[in-house]
């Protein structure tokens, strides 16, 4: 039904007393109609047309001789209706027309900033979002600052009675600013705005618990990535409280899919926090061991000097970053205060006439529900003009662990505690993110678990057997996934997995060679293991290279190739369909140069370097196989140098290429000497 108002009252008083309430009521009715998909905005367009007719009537009445304060009020009310139409047009995808109306209405509405606070906050927000979508971030921030200024003006008038809708709109303003700041690379200040947004949602009860926890996990991930572990822990502690409140409220209800997903995401985020903290601890442990080792070797002074210079530079960079963050925040707050003063300077002294009326409808704005528990956040930053809170200072209890400190001594017991908590949470998350349905997430979790095991390696400095067990965990976890995934869909994922498995095999081979040299009498029993690990490393490095060197091959369900002296032949088989092009787990590099993406060049070359080295790590059991392995190694070195020079690479690997050239000169002489008997075969075990 289309509304038509044929006649309006001829006097201003009667029009505002009789017509205006009816017009606004009908406008509300029209914009609330859910139109069919074929004409989704039909009723909204009718609402704009309807309001335009009444605006035209008011404009005609303005030609009358009326009192100045009444004229000012009518101007503002015309701007209010222009604002309403602009919001509806933007929602109805008439963006240009809607933006023009909002831009025209804001200066007039700003003359009554207190009474029009919600309209100003929402209008400036909507214009800011339009500019943000155009990647005009500076202009977007100008409008968001105006929105924030309008909120502060209302709050300064009566902070106890500020409208809930204004609070809700201001929370949106902070969220929009967080997005823009992140887009322009100011992640630290953007993170603060995002954290305050989450805190305000708790304060005003305007959140859906599981959605809020998901957003809090994203916030924690940002802090994990920037190594702000204390802030990440604060997010996790707050998320624990929200989950506890939600589950206690619905203790008897069966868990929904949404709840299961949220709990899995929370477990995964906590696990990744513990992994990041464990990696940080492992780095410090390795540094301590390096210092102790160099003390024994007498080369400690130079290393300590370099380390001190590095640490001082790192500290300086951190301090400069913190100073930039604070300066940027102060600049942002100063701009908001300046905008606030400009709005106040343009405001009229409020002396409303009998005509004035404040609109109570704001198209596109969802009224604050406030159905969730309201409370002040225990751990999150509550206002942007405050500094982040110390998560360990709160008296509130939490299910999370005590705060991690990057200053504490990296002990085995501390590392073990992080490892156990992380592993339990990764396994809990993996029960939801199963391979059948969540391939990418499941693989990422398995890679994280592998990293968790490897981060424990520095805490077993002289226990080769335990380190080998940790590395074997990587192989056990990841190797089956290489066979299970379809390379047509997950080629890069297979590459990531293969690299991890190959690296683990390579480290295992080196450790077993080291063990064989140090533990006399075990050489014979370790030879088969060494060759097995070298085989595994080369095989998985070849699988990593397959998308580059053999782009048409399908290596689904491969079985490991063998390069060892015992079998004598390199071979591979596959359980894939015979109609597919089977991979060749080859002994030689490609005969031509594949086109490698620039961001993969270093990985591609370093993998060929590793294969060249690995062919020299087989145990020496007979002359023919030893010569063959040296030739394979030589082929890899030659290919690496030729590929490097053909692609005219000059920005990395200069030293490595020089080493390859030296090997290209040395290996032919060695191969010839061994073949002619002029050079004796080396010992069975490769050197350490």
Please explain how this structure is put together.
The chain has 688 residues and is mainly alpha-helical. Among the domains are: 1-109; 518-676, no CATH class. It is 67% helix and 1% strand. It is built from 20 helices and two strands. The protein has helices at residues 12-31, 42-61, 68-91, 95-109, 117-133, 137-157, 164-183, 187-204, 209-225, 229-249, 257-297, 300-345, 412-432, 439-455, 464-484, 487-518, 523-549, 601-614, 623-646, 654-676, and strands spanning 558-559, 573-574. Strands 1-2 form a two-stranded antiparallel sheet. The longest helix is centred in the middle third of the chain and has 46 residues, at 300-345. Residues 1-6, 393-400 and 559-584 have low confidence and may be disordered.
């Amino acid at each position: 039904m289309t509304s038509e108002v044929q006649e309006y009252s001829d006097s201003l008083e009667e029009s505002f007393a009789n017509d205006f309430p009816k017009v606004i009521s009908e406008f509300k009715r029209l914009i609330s109609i859910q139109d069919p998909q074929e004409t989704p905005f039909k009723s909204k367009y009718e609402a704009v047309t309807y309001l335009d007719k009444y605006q035209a009537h008011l404009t005609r009445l303005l030609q009358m001789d009326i009192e100045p304060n009444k004229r000012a009020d009518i101007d503002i009310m015309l701007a209010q209706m222009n604002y309403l139409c602009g919001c509806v047009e933007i929602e109805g995808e008439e963006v240009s027309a809607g933006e023009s109306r909002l831009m025209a209405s804001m200066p007039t509405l700003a003359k009554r900033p207190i009474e029009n606070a919600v309209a100003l906050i929402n209008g400036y927000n909507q214009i800011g979002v339009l500019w943000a979508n155009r990647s005009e971030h500076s202009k977007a921030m100008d409008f968001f600052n105006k929105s924030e200024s309008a909120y502060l003006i209302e709050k300064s008038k009566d902070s106890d009675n500020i409208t809930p809708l204004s609070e809700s709109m201001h929370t949106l303003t902070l969220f929009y600013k967080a997005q823009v700041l992140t887009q322009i690379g100011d992640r630290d200040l953007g993170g603060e705005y995002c954290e305050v947004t989450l805190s305000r949602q708790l304060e005003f009860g305007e959140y859906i618990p599981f959605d809020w926890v998901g957003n809090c996990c994203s916030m924690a991930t940002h802090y994990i990535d920037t190594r702000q572990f204390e802030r990440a822990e604060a997010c996790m502690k707050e998320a624990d409280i929200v989950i506890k409140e939600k589950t206690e409220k619905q203790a008897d209800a069966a868990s929904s899919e949404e709840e299961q997903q949220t709990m899995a995401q929370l477990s995964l985020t906590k696990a990744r926090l513990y992994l990041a903290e464990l990696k940080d601890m492992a780095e410090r442990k390795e540094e301590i061991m390096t210092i102790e080792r160099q003390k024994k070797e007498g080369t400690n002074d130079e290393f300590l000097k370099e380390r001190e210079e590095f640490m001082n530079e790192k500290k300086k960079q951190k301090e400069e970053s913190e100073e930039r963050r604070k300066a940027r925040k102060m600049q942002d707050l100063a701009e908001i205060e300046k905008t606030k003063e400009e709005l106040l300077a343009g405001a009229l002294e409020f002396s409303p006439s009998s005509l004035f009326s404040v609109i109570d409808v704001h198209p596109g704005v969802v009224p604050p529900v406030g159905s969730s528990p309201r409370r002040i956040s225990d751990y999150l930053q509550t206002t942007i003009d405050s500094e982040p809170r110390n998560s360990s200072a709160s008296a509130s209890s939490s299910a999370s662990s005590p705060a991690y400190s990057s200053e504490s001594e990296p002990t085995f017991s501390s590392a073990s505690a992080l490892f156990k908590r992380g592993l339990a949470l990764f396994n809990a998350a993996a029960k939801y993110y199963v391979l059948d349905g969540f391939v990418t997430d499941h693989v990422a979790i398995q890679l994280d678990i592998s990293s968790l095991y490897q981060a424990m390696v520095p805490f077993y400095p002289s226990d080769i057997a335990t380190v080998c067990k940790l590395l074997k965990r990587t192989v056990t976890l990841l190797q089956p996934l290489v066979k299970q995934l379809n390379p047509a869909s997950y080629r890069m994922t297979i590459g990531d997995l293969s690299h991890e498995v190959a690296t683990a095999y390579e480290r295992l081979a080196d450790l077993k060679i080291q063990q064989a040299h140090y533990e006399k009498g075990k050489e014979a029993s370790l030879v088969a293991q060494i060759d097995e690990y070298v085989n595994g490393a080369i095989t998985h490095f070849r699988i990593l290279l397959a998308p580059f060197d053999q782009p048409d091959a399908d290596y689904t369900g491969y079985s490991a190739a063998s390069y060892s002296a015992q079998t004598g032949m390199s071979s591979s088989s596959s359980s894939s369909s015979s109609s597919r092009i089977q991979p060749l787990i080859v002994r030689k590099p490609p005969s031509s140069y594949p086109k490698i993406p620039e961001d993969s060049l270093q990985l591609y070359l370093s993998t060929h370097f590793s294969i060249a080295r690995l062919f020299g790590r087989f145990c020496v059991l007979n002359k023919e196989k030893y010569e063959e392995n040296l030739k394979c190694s030589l082929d890899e070195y030659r290919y690496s140098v030729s590929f490097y020079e053909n692609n005219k690479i000059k920005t990395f690997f200069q030293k490595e290429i020089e080493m390859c050239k030296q090997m290209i000169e040395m290996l032919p002489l060695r191969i010839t000497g061994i073949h002619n008997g002029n050079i004796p075969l080396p010992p069975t075990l490769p050197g350490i």
